[in-house]
C-alpha cells in the first residue's frame, strides 16, 4: 500500500479501542483488509455505514471509524437495506459471522438476495459459534465435534455460495483472510458492484475450532482459474465442489436493477430523503386521512 493509502487506512481505525478478540483470530485480518479496501476506494469515514448483529464478527464496526448500527442477532440486513434505501449516496456494508448471517439471519439472507439492495455483505465464516463458546454453526462440517455436538455434527452444512447462485444473486465471492491482498481486492470489487454483493470470508477461530485452521484453509482451497463469472450454471457447479473449495468471484450479474432503483420514491427524484424538503400541508392532509 502507498503512503497516502496507509494514512487513509489509519483514518478508518477507531482510536483508543482494543479489539476484544483472541490473539491470532482471523477477525484481525478481516478488519485490516476492510480498512485498507475503504482507503484504496478513496472513501471517507462519513460516507460509510457498517451494520451488524451479534457475535465476534459483529463487533467489527465498533473498531472502525465509520457510521455504525448494531442491532439484534441475525438482523443486520433489514436495517442495512433501509439505510441504503433512505440514502443511496452512502456506502453500506452488513457484517457478521456465519451463525449470525446464515443461522439466525438465514431468512433475511434469502430475501435480501431477492431484493438486490446496493450493499455489500461480508460474512466471517469460521464454521463455529465463537461468542457462545464453540457450538456448531450452519457451516460446520459433518462429524465436527463440539461441547454440544459431542458425537459430531450430523446435519449437512449450508452452502451459502450455491444457495445465493440458485437465487440469481447479483454478486457472490469467497476469500480466505490469510491472503490479505486478495481479500482486499475482492472486497473492493464487491463494494463497487451495483447491487447486493456477498463475500463469504474463510477465517480461522483459533480458540474453538481446532480443525479448520489457517493451515487447513491453505490446504483445502484454490483460486478459480479460467472461470466465466457470468455463466450462472458453471458458477453453481464450481460452488458445489467439496474436495477443494474454490476462492474468487463465482458469479456476477450487473444487469439486475437494485432495490433502490425499483422504489417509486427514487423514480420521481434521486435526492436522498434527508435532503428533501417537507411539504407540511400534504403531510397534515395525509395524517387526517388516517384519523378515526
Q: Which class best fits the helix and strand makeup?
A: alpha/beta
The radius of gyration over CA amounts to: 20 Å
Please give the CATH architecture. Answer: 3-Layer(aba) Sandwich
Q: Mean of the pLDDT scores?
A: 93
Beta percentage is: 15-25%
**What is the terminal separation in angstroms?**
63 Å
Write the SSE topology.
Elements: H1 3-11, H2 27-40, E1 48-52, E2 67-70, H3 77-86, E3 91-97, H4 98-104, H5 106-115, E4 120-125, H6 160-166, E5 171-176, H7 180-192, E6 197-202, H8 214-219, E7 221-223, H9 232-239, E8 245-252, H10 259-262, H11 264-268, H12 280-289
Parallel strand pairs: 1-2, 1-3, 3-4, 4-6, 5-6, 7-8
Antiparallel strand pairs: 5-8
Helix pairs in contact: 1-2, 2-7, 4-5, 6-9
Q: Tags for this entry?
A:
35% helix; 15% strand; alpha/beta; 292 residues; 8-stranded mixed sheet; Rossmann fold
Describe the structure.
This protein has one domain (3-289): Thiamin diphosphate (ThDP)-binding fold, Pyr/PP domains (Rossmann fold, 3-Layer(aba) Sandwich). Helix content is 35%, strand content 15%. The protein has helices at residues 3-11, 27-40, 77-86, 98-104, 106-115, 160-166, 180-192, 214-219, 232-239, 259-262, 264-268, 280-289, and strands spanning 48-52, 67-70, 91-97, 120-125, 171-176, 197-202, 221-223, 245-252. An 8-stranded mixed sheet has the order 2-1-3-4-6-5-8-7, sandwiched between helices. Helix 1 (3-11) crosses helix 2 (27-40) and helix 4 (98-104) packs across helix 5 (106-115). The N and C termini lie far apart (63 Å).
Amino acid at each position: 500500500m502507498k503512503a497516502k493509502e496507509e494514512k487513509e487506512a489509519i483514518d478508518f481505525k477507531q482510536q483508543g479501542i482494543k479489539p476484544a478478540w483472541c490473539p491470532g483470530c482471523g477477525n484481525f485480518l478481516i478488519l485490516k483488509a476492510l480498512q485498507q479496501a475503504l482507503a484504496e476506494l478513496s472513501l471517507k469515514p462519513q460516507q460509510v455505514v457498517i451494520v451488524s448483529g451479534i457475535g465476534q464478527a459483529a463487533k467489527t464496526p465498533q473498531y472502525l471509524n465509520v457510521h455504525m448500527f448494531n442491532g439484534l442477532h441475525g438482523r443486520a440486513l433489514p436495517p442495512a437495506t433501509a439505510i441504503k434505501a433512505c440514502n443511496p449516496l452512502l456506502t453500506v456494508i452488513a457484517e457478521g459471522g456465519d451463525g449470525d448471517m446464515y443461522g439466525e439471519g438465514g431468512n433475511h439472507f434469502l430475501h435480501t438476495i431477492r431484493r438486490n439492495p446496493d450493499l455489500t455483505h461480508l460474512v466471517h465464516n469460521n464454521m463455529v459459534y465463537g461468542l457462545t463458546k464453540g457450538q456448531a454453526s450452519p457451516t460446520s462440517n459433518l462429524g465436527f465435534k463440539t461441547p454440544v455436538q459431542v458425537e459430531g455434527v450430523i446435519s449437512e452444512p449450508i452452502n451459502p455460495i450455491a444457495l445465493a447462485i440458485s437465487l440469481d444473486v447479483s454478486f457472490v465471492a469467497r476469500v480466505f483472510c490469510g491472503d490479505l491482498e486478495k481479500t482486499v481486492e475482492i472486497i473492493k470489487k464487491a463494494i463497487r458492484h451495483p447491487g447486493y454483493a456477498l463475500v463469504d470470508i474463510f477465517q480461522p477461530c483459533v480458540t474453538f475450532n481446532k480443525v479448520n485452521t489457517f493451515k487447513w484453509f491453505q490446504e483445502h482451497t484454490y483460486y478459480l482459474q479460467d472461470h466465466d463469472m457470468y455463466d450462472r450454471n458453471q458458477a453453481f457447479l464450481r460452488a458445489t465442489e467439496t474436495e477443494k473449495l474454490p476462492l474468487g468471484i463465482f458469479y456476477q450479474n450487473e444487469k439486475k436493477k437494485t432495490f433502490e432503483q425499483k422504489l417509486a420514491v427514487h423514480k420521481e427524484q434521486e435526492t436522498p430523503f434527508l435532503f428533501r424538503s417537507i411539504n407540511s400541508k400534504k403531510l397534515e392532509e395525509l395524517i387526517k386521512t388516517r384519523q378515526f
